[in-house]
Amino acid sequence: MLASRGYHGAKIADIARDADVGVGTFYLYYKTKEALFTALVDETARLLKRRLDVVHGQVTDPRDYARASTATFFRFADEHRELFRIVFGHGAQFHDVVRRAQARFIADVRENLRHGMERGVFRRNRAEVLAPAFVGLSYQVVSWWIEQEAISLEEVVESVLDFVFHGVDAAPSKPLRPSTRRPRRSRSQRGS
């Protein structure tokens, strides 16, 4: 019900009917539709994190970890398409609980990027900027891909990884350096 109608379109009575329980029984477990949504996102993030932690325990090379964790994320989304449609699909409410789940994955990616930079596997850059970019790219692609039937899991994973490791530039260029400029001061800091 949530997957087909979206967060805003699904009514509690519809959700209870689809679950084959009474509305009163629904309220025994969840006080609101938002509480159900929060529980779904938390459980999804917990299951995904568990799978990614297994990958992290098996792979030590940062590049291999980026590849394996990206493949794991998309494989998990493929196995749980209906759940991902609820959380990330059309009409899903981008909610604080989703942001909290993303923050956990961003922390893992940031750690892997820093580790790779220290070992010389990845070129030096701002891991705190790249980590949310990598996670954001993956979430955006998965939110689109869960509605697709023509693009295989392997194709989407390879496309994302190719973009992450090689970008879109056909010819190698000089690496961009992080800015050494100081941040702009606000009016209040400049003394208007």
Q: Can you summarize this structure?
A:
This protein has 10 helices and no strands. By secondary structure, it is mainly α. It has a domain at 34-166: Tetracycline Repressor, domain 2.
Count of DSSP-assigned helices: 10
- Our estimate of the beta-strand percent is under 5%
Major β-sheet annotation: none
Q: Helix/strand-derived class?
A: mainly alpha
Radius of gyration (Å): 20 Å
Helix content: 55-70%
Q: Uncertain regions: pLDDT < 50 for 5+ in a row?
A: none
Q: What number is the mean pLDDT?
A: 82
Quaternary organization = single chain
Q: Write the H/E string, N to C.
A: HHHHHHHHHH
What characteristic shape results from the CA principal axes?
Answer: elongated
How many angstroms separate the termini? 55 Å
CATH topology type of the domain at 34-166: Tetracycline Repressor, domain 2
